[in-house]
Amino acid sequence: MASKSGKTPDQHSRQARIAEMRRADQARDRRNKAIAITTSTVIVVGLVGFGAWVMIGQKQEEQRKKDAVELARKTPVDGEQTWDAKNLGRNHVETPVKYEMNPPVGGDHHPRWMNCNGDVYKNPVPEVNAVHSLEHGAVWVTYNDKAAQGEVDKLAATVGKTPYTLMSPVKEQAGAIMLSAWGKQLTVEKADDPRVAQFFTKYVQGPQTPEPGAACTSGVAGQ
Length: 223
Hints:
Layout: H1 9-74, E1 81-82, E2 117-120, H2 127-135, E3 139-143, H3 149-160, E4 165-169, E5 177-181, E6 184-188, H4 194-203
Parallel strand pairs: 2-4, 3-4
Antiparallel strand pairs: 1-6, 3-5, 5-6
Helix pairs in contact: 1-4
Keywords: Membrane, Transmembrane, Transmembrane helix
Pfam family, one: DUF3105
Protein name: DUF3105 domain-containing protein
C-alpha cells in the first residue's frame, strides 16, 4: 500500500538506507580529513623540531670549533722560537736581503709574494718573496734532506688543502722540518707531531699577521 506521498514502504526504507549511507560517508570523510590534518600537523611539527635540533647541533659544533681555535691561539706552541715583530723590517726592496735566521721569519722583502694558497714547491723559492707571504699571514713549511720522504708527502698533503700556506725545500736549514710564520718558527721531526696542527691553527692568518686578509694568489709562481 502506498503512503500519502505515493511511495511504498520499501521505497521509504530504501531512501532511509541511502540517507544513512550518505551520513556514514560524510562522517568517514570528516574523520579522514581530521586524521590527515592531525598527521600533517604532527609531521610538520616533527620536521620543524628536527630542523631546529639540527641547527642547534650545527651551531654548537661551530662554537666548539671556534673555542678550539681560540684555545689553540692562546696556548703557546711548545718549542717554538719567537722574534720581536718590532725588530723585523717590512720595507719593500728589490735588492738581496741578508736574514738573521734560516728560513727567515720576517724582515724587508720583495714587493711580490710567493703564491701561498696551499702551494707545494718542489724547488727552493726566493726567500724575499716567501717572507712577503708570511707578512700576509701564511705559514711556510720547509724541509731538508734529513726529512723522510713519507713525512714530506704527509706535509705536502696538509699544505695542499690549507689556504695561506706554502711548502718548499731549504737545504741549509738546521732542522729536518721547520714551520715559519711572521716572527714565529718551529722545528719538528714528524709530520704528525701534534704541534704541527697547533702551529697551523694558531698562525695561519693568525694574530701575528701584519697584513691579515692580504692576497696569497696572483703573486710569484715557483715550481
